[in-house]
Structures are given as C-alpha cells and as structure tokens.
Write a structure and sequence with these properties.
The chain contains 2 helices and 34 strands. The longest helix has 12 residues. The two termini are 25 Å apart. It binds beta-D-fructofuranose. The site of beta-D-fructofuranose (FRU) has 14 residues, from strand 1, strand 5, strand 9, strand 13 and strand 18. Beta-D-fructofuranose binds next to strand 1, strand 5, strand 9, strand 13 and strand 18. It is found in: Cytoplasm.
Length: 496
C-alpha cells in the first residue's frame, strides 16, 4: 500500500510536475480493470456524481475527483458534457480548490438553472491550523464563454446553531417560485439530519427554514448527499445515512443510501413517510444524485464505490466509477429503477437463444465476454434455485442465484476474483415481492449492475475477475428452467 502523508494528500494538481502525472497515467492505463462504458477517473480517485443537469440541449455531469492517487485527498470537480448520457466528453476540472474556503476540497453539490443561467452550489471544505473542519456553501455561475466563475464569499456561511461542521452536499431544487437547498447535516448530539434553506434569488441571502422533520430521530451520525423530488404527487427524500448497524440482509455495506416516500409539508417541514428503503442491494453504491433528463424523466446516477474501503485498483493509481444512469418511477409506493434508454445506443452484435437449463452446469454458447448487456427472461421455472455464473472460468465466477421459494436474488462474489476490503461477507441479497421473471445485467471490465424484474431491485457491484474469466454459464439446484437470452456486446465509449 502506498503511504499518503497529509501533505501529499492535500497537494494541488497544479503544483505537480507534468512527468509525475504522465507516469501515473501510464500506470493507470496498464490496469487490467479499466472500464469501457462507465465514467472513471483517468488518474486518481472518483467519488460522488455532482452538478448533474440537462441545460440548453446538453448534459452536464461532474464528479468528485482527487487526481493524484486512489485516496480521498484534495477534491476537485471533474466535468463531462454530451448530447446524451452515454457519449460524454471529458472536459477537465471545472471547480478547483483555489480559495481559503475550499482549501481542503471542493466537495459535493448540485447544478440548477435560474433565469436561463446555469449555477452550481457546492460545499467548500476547509481545515484550520489545528485541523478542525469548517464547511460552508458556495455558489458559482457559468458565464457566456462556458467558464465556471465562483462567487467570492459563501452564500451560506456555516452551519446554523445546534449543528456541527458536518454540513455539506447542497441539493438545490425549484418549487412554487422559490429555490430550496437541502444540506446534509449532523446535530450537536451527533445524529444525522437534513436542513432546508430557501431564497427567491440564488445570489440573495438564503433563509434557514429548519430541519426536515422525519420520523427518524436517531438514524446514524451523519446524513450525506440529500436529494428531493416528486413522483406521482408523492415527496421523495434521498439521503446517505452513516452509522447504521446491519440487520439481517439490510444495511450490509459500510454506509447506506436510501429514500423515504411520503408527504412533506413545506410550511411546517413535517414529513409523514413510509420506512427507509435502500436504493441498491449490491456491494458498491453510494452518494447518488438525481436530475431531469431531456424528456423530464427523473434520472439517478450513483457512485459505484464506498468510502473507507480499499479497492484492488488502489495500487494502480486509480479507483472507482459511476453507475449507469437509471430512470426512477414510483410504483406501489416504491422506487423502480430502469436503465436509461440512452444505454441502448451502446448495443452491438445482438445474439439471442432460447433453451432449457437444468442441474448440469451448462456454458451458454456462444455467450462470453467482458463487456456486455445481458437480458435473461425466465419463461418457465420449475427449479428450486437457478444460478447464472458470469465472468466465469475454471476457477472464477460471479454468481447470481435466484431461490424460487424465498424469491431472493443473491449476488455472490466469493469466487469473483480480487475483492475490496474490509467488506462484510461475500453475498448480498435482494428480496423480490414477486417471482423473478427478468434480469437485465450490465457487465463492464470490473463491474456488474443487475436490474431485477424491470427495476424492482438493483444490485450494483465492482468485481475484479481475471481476463480469461469471460464465460456465461447456468445451472439449477434441481428441476429445469426455460430461458430466453439476449446479449449485446458493448464497445469502448468514453474517452479517458
Ligand atoms: C460522500 C462525501 C460527501 C462529500 C464528498 C467529499 O461520499 O463524503 O459528503 O461532499 O464525499 O468528497
């Protein structure tokens, strides 16, 4: 493991020799785990998606970025633009840590449009000489040349009384002529919550309205990356609580990411809601953000990684990627997540097959690959359990198991290759409400995203198999299944 002193962690990209960066780029390019259709850092570490918006005919997408290695160091916003959500062009950093306020990182935030102008609100992270955290919220505006210009002074200067400096990740939205900002926060009693601010003009003072009064009074020590939107007339609050203990199959990852559905009273800030539901049942999912696409569909993109975890690519000088974009809908009180239709633009070389599978493991021919979309329709199922082995070789397999009786989909990384650590267990479980009828799976060089029953549940995970682990196999415990398989190859899409 590379050693990172505090000085090295907080070194600016601009102060580093071009040769050091080039050597790092070469190291990263030699990695066997580079993705082909996911957004990943060309060097260093990526985390949260930031500033997602469709604005004047283009998508704008940024992410948290520490360029110099696979650690959470001095954060920038790295930026992409594009006409659709799969052919995005890297544009370099747009927000850099170059003021006293953000001297220790331009942290997460969001984009919004106001009077035809594009704005960003983000958290400026500062550490005092005694290494105490100071957080405030800053504003930036995009000028007519496309340059992002920061305002000199914070628009929200610090946490209100009663809250600590864990005060970050503003998500701005519009409602009935006002702009609102939600901010992830920690109360002085060290419990997490979300704060709400409001203004009539982004450059005028923002008034603190209070906490969103949920029924979760003590649910972890910090809530990161809040988001709010409406679907079918219901209010939905997304956030990432930290410090929740695991319970059976729930809350297995180090930090969680989930949502509340209900009714938010904007006068009293009281939120009547159903229980917290996790957004993703895989191993690697955190800090998602939503936005409206060109057809005003609600789209979510997450970080396919987690904090406080070492990944097999760390020693290669890079870490993490974003998830594919997913469309959110609300059905029977729960969010459904379907792959965004722009992903169809990636499809090449369609192959289909119909066939029975039983307890004798069968390699599905000619199905193999490292980067593909695979749709499995389960047409008849008399098996007690079915297993699909992807990225499989003699010694490795990423196993997706469906148990008919319990209606559970289980993702098992036990034999999937190298593993991140520390990570609790090697399996993750998604509980379906009905029988499994379809899996739609996106496999990239080092990730897998599994959409069950048209988005009833999703499991997103990084996997680190060997290059020769490229087979697709199926087997049942007993009994047979009748399957339809459709596979599309996916070729390199996003420039590094
Ligand atoms: C979530 C997070 C945010 C913060 C950012 C810093 O992963 O911790 O709360 O703004 O990452 O990179």
């Amino acid at each position: 493991m590379e050693q990172w002193s505090r000085e090295k962690r907080y070194q600016k990209l601009e102060d580093v020799d071009a040769k050091v960066i080039n050597d790092l780029k070469e190291r990263v390019q030699a990695s066997p785990y580079r993705q082909v259709f996911h957004i990943q850092p060309k060097t260093g570490l990526l985390n949260d998606p930031n500033g997602l918006i469709y604005y004047q005919g283009q998508y704008y997408l940024s992410h948290q970025w520490f360029p110099l290695g696979a650690v959470h160091g001095l954060k920038y916003w790295f930026h992409y633009t594009g006409k659709n959500l799969v052919n995005l062009k890297p544009c370099g950093p747009i927000l850099k840590p170059d003021t006293t306020f953000d001297s220790h990182g331009v942290y997460s935030g969001s984009a919004f449009q106001f009077q035809n102008q594009l704005y960003y609100m983000y958290t400026a992270n500062h550490r005092t000489a005694s290494w105490e955290r100071r957080s405030c919220q800053m504003l930036a505006k995009v000028n007519s040349h496309g340059d992002v210009i920061k305002f000199d002074t914070p628009i929200i200067s610090g946490p209100p009384k009663g809250y600590t400096h864990h005060f970050r990740d503003p998500k701005v939205f519009q409602r009935e002529g006002y702009l609102y900002a939600l901010i992830g926060a920690q109360r002085e009693n060290l419990t997490g919550t979300v704060l709400m601010y409001r203004t009539s003009h982004p450059e005028k003072p923002w008034t603190f309205l209070g906490e969103i009064d949920t029924q979760l009074k003590s649910f972890g020590y910090m809530w990161e990356c809040p988001d709010y939107f409406q679907l079918n007339g219901k209010d939905i609050l997304l956030f990432c609580p930290q410090g929740i203990d695991s319970e059976d199959n729930a809350y297995q990852n180090v930090y969680q990411s989930g949502y509340l559905v209900g009714h938010l009273n904007f006068e009293t800030l009281t939120f009547e809601h159903a229980p917290f539901v996790e957004l993703d049942d895989g191993f690697d999912f955190y800090a998602p953000q939503t936005f409206l696409d060109e057809a005003k569909r609600r789209v979510l993109i997450g970080w396919m990684g987690l904090p406080d975890t070492e990944y097999p690519t760390d020693d290669e000088g890079w870490a993490h990627c974003l998830t594919v974009p997913r469309i959110l809908t609300l059905e029977s009180g729960e969010l459904k997540q379907k792959p965004h239709m722009d992903l169809r633009k990636l499809r090449q070389n369609k192959e289909t097959a119909l066939g029975y599978a039983n307890k004798f493991i069968k390699q599905l021919h000619p199905y193999e690959g490292e980067q593909y979309e695979l749709i499995i329709d389960i047409l008849e199922n008399e098996a007690s359990a079915i297993e699909f082995h992807l990225r499989a070789s003699k010694h490795e397999a990423t196993v997706i198991r469906y148990e008919s009786k319990t209606q559970q989909v289980i993702l098992d990384r036990f034999d999937s290759g190298k593993l991140p650590h520390p990570v609790e267990g090697t399996a993750r479980v998604a509980q379906l409400k009905s029988e499994l009828s379809q899996l739609r799976i996106f496999v990239d060089t080092s990730s897998i995203e599994i959409f069950c029953n048209e988005g009833e549940k999703v499991l997103s995970s990084r996997i680190f198999p060997s290059k020769d682990a490229n087979k697709i196999k199926v087997v049942t415990d007993s009994g047979q299944v009748y399957l339809k398989l459709t596979k599309y190859d996916i070729k390199k899409q996003i420039e590094d």
